[in-house]
Fold these 2 entries.
Entry 1:
Amino acid sequence: DVMIPLKHYPSVRDTTPPSLVLPNNVVQECPGDTRTNITGVPIATDSCGSVAITYSDIVSNSCGLTRTVWRIWTATDQCGNSTNGTQIITVRDTTPPRIVCPTIAVQCPDDVPPPYTNLSAFLTAGGTATDGCSPTLTLSLVSDSGVVGSCPGSVTRLYRLTDACGNSSTGTQTIIVDDTIAPVLVCPTNVTLQCGLPFDPANIGSPTATDNCSTNI
């Protein structure tokens, strides 16, 4: 028998996971943009070959459209070794809503509308209320001066608009009260008097007058 010597070949294997350098944690103002081209991507390297990078998100929603995203990045080499890392993306709301109160002019004090009790009434009257993060806004009356002065007078009301995250802003509404309509005078009909009769209302009649605002004319 002929003895054939065995050759020993060295074994080469990869048990080292790739290195992973994560992008920085990010804080954005609502509504935010958490796409990777905005928040960054990691850098992965491996001494044995190419690396595939994937990620998955865990999202915790908060007030309005605010949220926290835990983005778990995974770098996997060709031999199945992997490295994980977590990037935190926070979308917060520190911006107050925007409010513009309607300006109203009326003729009489009795024409002054009551304060708005909800946001729907405020918007119907011509006010505007907007927010980039909160779909739900709350309107409340802070103060009401009542009618101050006359001819013209004015009413000053202060409203507060609050978003779902507690940010708020105030708006001032001024209602002008100014009677610009003259009273209506109705003269008595023409009459012919007998000579010597006095010119008093019993003989010639009395005018009547009405006004849109005043009862004392």
Entry 2:
Amino acid sequence: MKIILNSLDISSVPEFDSIFEGIGLLKNVKTDRDSVLNNIKNVDAYLASAAIKIDKEFLNHADNLKVIGSPSTGTDHMDLDLIAERGIKCFDISKETELLNSFTATSELAFSLLLSLLRKNILACNDAKNGIWSREKYTGLQLYGKVFGILGLGRLGKISARIANGFGMKVRAHDIKDISFPNVKMVDLNTLVQKSDFLSIHIHLNKDTEGLVNMDFLKKMKKNAVIINTSRGKIINELDLLYALEKSIIAGAALDVIDGEWLTKQELYKHPLIEYSRNSDKIIISPHIGGATIESICGARLFMAKKVADFLSELD
């Protein structure tokens, strides 16, 4: 009997269990590294939460592991080279175009974060809860007529372009590929950085993009510019960003990701950007919830469960 270990929250995916009927025994554990490591021995398949790193220590516990399924587009939580070296098959959804085209959540969140920052929504709502009705205090900026820059015109970049067009923004984009898209003006990277009022990052993290947004990059931006990152934290040099915010080199940052998402609660509390966010209205941070909608979570997790089940069936 094959054993499938699942560290994903499947409370909103009632069909999940039935996918493995007749294939193996599904064992659900908490989304917690210790819980997974204590149960991974002798497991044939692992359904992976992006919150748990799959590294050498992890794989040393997984004597019998044959396949990993991660319902995520990012893979920075997995040591892909070591996984391949161990002869373990690894699935993610980064190239599942048909599935991903129905997921708009991350691009929607990028605008939610931007608007929350520009309109100071959280601070204003907190005042209202306390009976403080101070409209003038929270005068913000509108999106209409602003230049919306998109770094990476892939799937999410294109969704973001359509949304920005809907707000009446001037959309500019840069991509390493030769791409054209309706109502988007393609420009070189320097032009994008220099001309954007709001710059949204939609590129993958790799050796070429790690630390791409550094001090040189930030100094080229407008002083009233806001950078939005719903991709991966390591694309931004965070100490450079912190300095740029403190010295008003740029006006703000709206982030759904940071470098260090696997830190403990105590360590996260002391993370430089999170510390800064407690005392500044120049930055807003959410805990990597870009894809956290019922539609995208259920769709991705069901898809990956079926993918892993099919793989296990073919082993017979």
